[in-house]
Amino acid sequence: MNPARLLLVIPCYNEEAILHQTHAQLVQYLADLKNRKLIDYQSKICYVNDGSRDKTWEIIDTLCQQDSSVVGIKLSRNFGHQSAILAGLETHVAGYDCFITIDADLQDDIQAMTAMIEKHRDGAMIVYGVRNDRSSDSWFKRFTAEGFYKMMQKMGVPVVFNHADFRLMDKRVLIELGDFREINLFLRGIVPLIGFQSDKVFYKRLERTAGETKYPLKKMVLFAWNGITSFSTFPMRLVLYFGLFNFIVAMAIFGYILVSYAFGFTVPGWTSTMLPITFFSGSNMMALGLIGEYIGKIYEEVKARPRYIIEKIVNE
Ligand code: UDP
Ligand code: MG
Question: What GO annotations for molecular function exist for this entry (predicted)?
Answer without folding.
Answer: glycosyltransferase activity
